[in-house]
């Protein structure tokens, strides 16, 4: 079996609040994210989903445990070795974080101009190919303000893909979009993931839209994680918090399957 893209072994993380009390966010959590698939991390507000992504990127340090990225324990590494591991990642967080004064083309080309020795012609070809994959051909010369919210997210993904990441991290990538647009964006993200083959890790509240593309689901609750091989498997859990989760968030998913 191929090596997990990301693995948590006994990972704990807590914060000390303003009142001086320690708040445990993750309590000896273990999970494994298979490569080349889409894993969705879900759970209620404040359960540590974004903290988990930040630990994977080492924007936060774990208090205990090991975090392996492609088999490398990243918990103790610094400097050049950390930078090297970070090159494996692409990120798309809530706002697409585009530069308003730059065209779509220049926004997407930015990582290539800053981080590679590619010629302008090579950059042009690569950027145009990615824009085509993300249904953005013909919009190269527009500015972000001239685009819909969904198009802005797609430009954000196009830029995040330029350095050929092995692992894409998404944190609420459809914030601000209506349900129809959200579903469309996730379908496009799924097609892009299948085409390029990266590992996708998505934190989202947009259930069931995001579950329709998940190979695996991780639910965070009270510092613990439950991993499920598929969204369907969730239905059969006997844990009360999972049953509640399914009842309150997933009805539409199963209803739509029944209709199909
Ligand atoms: N740097 C920090 N310092 C102190 N507390 C933090 C820090 N980062 C996160 N927290 C706390 O950790 C908890 C989990 O935060 P996190 O952002 O991971 O939640 P989440 O599951 O992503 O929630 P939401 O769905 O609401 O975004 C929250 O109570 C938050 O206040």
UniProtKB/TrEMBL annotation:
It holds the Pfam family ABC_tran. Residues 6-247 form the ABC transporter domain. Gene3D superfamilies: P-loop containing nucleotide triphosphate hydrolases. Keywords: ATP-binding, Nucleotide-binding, Transport. GO terms for molecular function: ATP binding; ATP hydrolysis activity. This is Phospholipid/cholesterol/gamma-HCH transport system ATP-binding protein. It comes from Desulfofustis glycolicus DSM 9705.
């Amino acid at each position: 079996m191929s090596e997990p893209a990301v693995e948590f072994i006994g990972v704990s993380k807590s914060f000390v609040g303003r009142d001086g009390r320690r708040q445990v966010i993750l309590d000896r959590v273990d999970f494994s994210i298979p490569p080349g698939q889409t894993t969705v991390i879900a759970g209620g507000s404040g359960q540590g989903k974004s903290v988990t992504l930040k630990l994977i990127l080492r924007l936060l340090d774990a208090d205990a445990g090991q975090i392996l990225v492609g088999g490398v324990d990243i918990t103790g590494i610094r400097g050049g070795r950390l930078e090297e591991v970070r090159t494996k990642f692409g990120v798309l967080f809530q706002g697409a974080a585009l530069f308003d004064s730059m065209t779509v083309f220049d926004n997407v080309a930015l990582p290539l101009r800053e981080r590679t020795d590619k010629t302008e012609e090579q950059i042009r070809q690569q950027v145009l190919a990615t824009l085509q994959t993300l249904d953005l051909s013909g919009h190269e010369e527009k500015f972000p303000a001239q685009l819909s919210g969904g198009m802005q997210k797609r430009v954000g993904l196009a830029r995040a893909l330029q350095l050929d990441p092995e692992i894409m991290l998404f944190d609420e990538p459809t914030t601000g979009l209506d349900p129809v647009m959200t579903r469309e964006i996730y379908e496009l993200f799924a097609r892009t993931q299948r085409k390029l083959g990266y590992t996708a890790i998505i934190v989202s509240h947009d259930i069931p839209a995001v579950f329709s593309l998940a190979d695996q689901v991780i639910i965070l609750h009270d510092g613990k994680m439950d991993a499920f091989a598929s969204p369907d498997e969730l239905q059969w859990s006997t844990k009360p918090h999972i049953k509640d989760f399914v009842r309150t968030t997933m009805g539409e998913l199963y209803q739509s399957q029944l209709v199909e």
